[in-house]
Structure prediction request, 149 residues.
Amino acid sequence: MRDRTAAPEMASDGYVRKLHRKMFSETWKWAGRYRTTEKNIGVPFPEIREPLMALFGDVRYWLEHRAYPTDEIAVRFHHRLVVIHPFPNGNGRHARLLADAFVMKHGLATFTWEARDLIKPGEARIRYLEGLHAADDGDMKLLIAFARM
Prediction:
């Protein structure tokens, strides 16, 4: 997380795939490769690259024009990655780490994400999913609050 990549460069195909590969290469041989099958979540796999490129452009625009506070840009980046769901597995963990790395690049503390295991069912995961669903409807408040809790 302390590499020399500038924040705008984090919004790129290469960085997103490299981070996933570094996170999961000892777990999955396919780490860092976009999915090639359908899931019950995410965009259809043949369309993954198009919304990713749009997201990367949006993040760079938000940064350049200071469209939102840094925390909100990071959480919006996280949310859209989760919605796109580019990898076969590890998307939520990857998107949370990316958001943490992003705010660190801006000199801010990493998010707490309620300091809980969000993979296992439980109250924290329910609140996380509620925040994601609210963000689906354009309301980022719950997800930002959850991230900084």
Remarks:
- The chain has a mean pLDDT of 94.
- Residues 49-65 form the longest helix (17 residues).
- Residues 7-110 form a domain with the Fic-like fold fold (CATH 1.10.3290.10).
- The two ends are 21 Å apart (CA to CA).
